[in-house]
Amino acid sequence: MSELHKFLFEGLPVRGMLVRLTDAWREVLARREPGQEYPPELRDLIGEMSAAAVLMQANIKFNGALVLQVFGDGPVKLAVAESQPDLSFRATAKCVGAVEPGATLEAMVNLRGQGRCAITLDPKDKFPGQQPYQGVVPLHGDQREPLQKMSEVLEHYMLQSEQLDTKLVLAANGEVAAGLLIQRLPVEGEGNLEGRRGAGPSPAEPAPLAGQAGLPAWGQRSSNEDDIGLSDAFNRISILAGTLTAEELLTLDADTVLRRLFWEETVTRFEPLTGTAAPRFACTCSRERVGQMLLGLGREEADSVLAERGEIEVGCDFCGRHYRFDAVDVGALFTPGSDQPGGHSPTLQ
Ligand SMILES: [Zn+2]
After folding, report:
1. Which of 81, 218, 222, 338 could pair with 49 as two cysteines, CB 3.0-4.6 Å apart?
2. Diameter of the chain by CA atoms?
3. How confident is the model over 55-90, as pLDDT tens digits?
């Protein structure tokens, strides 16, 4: 069963999370159409992104979708993992070329150095005109060296966009997708942070991720962080976390992983999210949404597909569901005021 564990390091400004997606991850893979299975290297990348999306969502508790996307310039054009506030998630990828055995992140999505990773926070209850918050990072490091691990890309993002010192270990295979996240917490007291949050972000920059999510926003480094001892704590724990191998992360249970890594630390564990509270696969697609998409395409385009094929069939890349619209469905869809997906209330016509 899939599970998520949260923990704190007693007396230290460091917290952590460990996720293991098992049945939920296998469900993602089982949803692929026969013959459309991912090459192992791409499968593992999507698995790592799924684990990361769940960890990041659980970490910030954002009231909306957290979408992790890699836009590739190699054989893989797109890889997506999306997680909802209830920690349900879905993932997919678009691959247009051959992924060679043993292909690295660079070979798959950053062949010409143009690959990008986007993290989008799409609020559930948007006010009119509100745009989702999006941060984009390249797939190379500060010295322009191509990054070979998804975890490094996301660590960069967290540091650059959110100024959160984060250590991530991610791994996936055909059975398990798992991740460990270690993050430094603000040193200051809650009261100070509340005060700072009240001041709000400057208008020139988007609201920081952490602030939006109800966590303290800490755009500037705390002046209290010259407390070297506390700073060292994160470094020590993140180095310990970095010794975790992919093999260990994929095969050992959470208790064993945490005991082996942090046996010298005092770790406070929280009730794990398992069973019905565990991260699970779920797709947010619906006939209504597909209808909205067709409306966006326009009547002319829809009619031309109908004329050619007799019906419009739209498949969901995430869950494999197929939606069919015949001439009657399309007619209703484009008729204002009819009982259609996204239909307008007659009083508004
Ligand atoms: Zn779907």
Report:
1. 81
2. 71
3. 999 998 889 999 999 999 999 999 999 999 999 999
Q: Tell me the CA–centroid distance for residue 282 and ligand 1, in Å.
A: 8
Q: What does the pLDDT average to over 117-137?
A: 91
How many CB atoms within 10 Å of residue 199?
A: 9
Pairing of strands 177-184, 166-172: antiparallel
What pLDDT is recorded for position 342?
Answer: 46
Q: Look up residue 234 and give its amino acid.
A: F
> 224 vs 263, which has greater pLDDT?
263
Ligand 1 centroid – CA 117 distance (Å): 22
> Between residues 195 and 8, which one has the greater pLDDT?
8
Using the mean position of ligand 1's atoms as its centre, give its distance from the Cα of residue 245 in Å: 33
Mean pLDDT of the chain: 86
Q: How many CB atoms lie within 10 A of CB 35?
A: 5
Question: What is the CA(49)–ligand 1 centre distance, in A?
Answer: 18
* Residue 32 alpha carbon to ligand 1 centre in Å: 11
Q: How far is the CA of 88 from the centre of ligand 1 (A)?
A: 13
In the three-class reduction of DSSP (H, G, I as helix; E, B as strand; rest coil), residue 40 is classed as helix
**CA nearest neighbour of 329 among 311, 347, 309:** 311
**Averaged pLDDT for residues 195-202:** 35
- Contact between 115 and 76 under an 8 Å Cβ cutoff? The reply is no
In the reported structure, the alpha carbon of residue 325 is separated from the centroid of ligand 1 by a whole-number distance in angstroms of 16
- 320 Cα to the center of ligand 1, angstroms: 6
**Distance (Å) from CA 83 to ligand 1 centroid:** 13
